[in-house]
Amino acid sequence: MNVEEEVQRLQEEIKRLGKVQPDGSYKVTFGVLFNDDRCANIFEALVGTLRAAKKRKLVSYDGELLLQGVHDNVEIILKPTPPSSSAAATTDSVAKS
After folding, report:
1. Where is the Costars domain positioned along the sequence (predicted)?
2. Could you point out which of 7, 14, 47, 83 has its C-alpha 20 to 30 Å from the C-alpha of 39?
3. pLDDT (tens digit, 9 = 90+) per residue, 87-97?
4. How far apart are CA 14 and CA 17, in angstroms?
């Protein structure tokens, strides 16, 4: 599995395990993700996948490196998905007409 696929799977798992917020984001703690059996089977390096997702500005959390036990209560926030580019292109076309 490549990094892009892993980041996409991470987003799915955060949605499965997290709680949806009023702004459309999802919130889950590192401990919940780390200790989930399904996540353990999917992600060989969960911390690395989280860092890749953070670098792509898809998730946010405090700190750089998360460690089991020490950072179990750190909240990971999956940012709301922006509208699809095709919907934005349609809106732009209508606005320009």
Report:
1. 1-79
2. 83
3. 444 444 444 44
4. 5
- Enumerate residues 6+ apart whose C-beta is below 8 A from 39: 13, 17, 33, 46
Q: How many residues does the chain have?
A: 97
CA 45 – CA 15 distance, rounded (Å): 19
CA distances from 85 to 15, 16, 57 (A): 21, 25, 17
Architecture of domain 3-78: Orthogonal Bundle (1.10)
Give every CB contact of residue 47 below 8 A, 6+ residues apart in sequence: 65, 66, 67
Structure tokens at 8: 């996409």
Domain ranges of the chain: 3-78
Hey, which residues does 55 pair with through a beta bridge? none
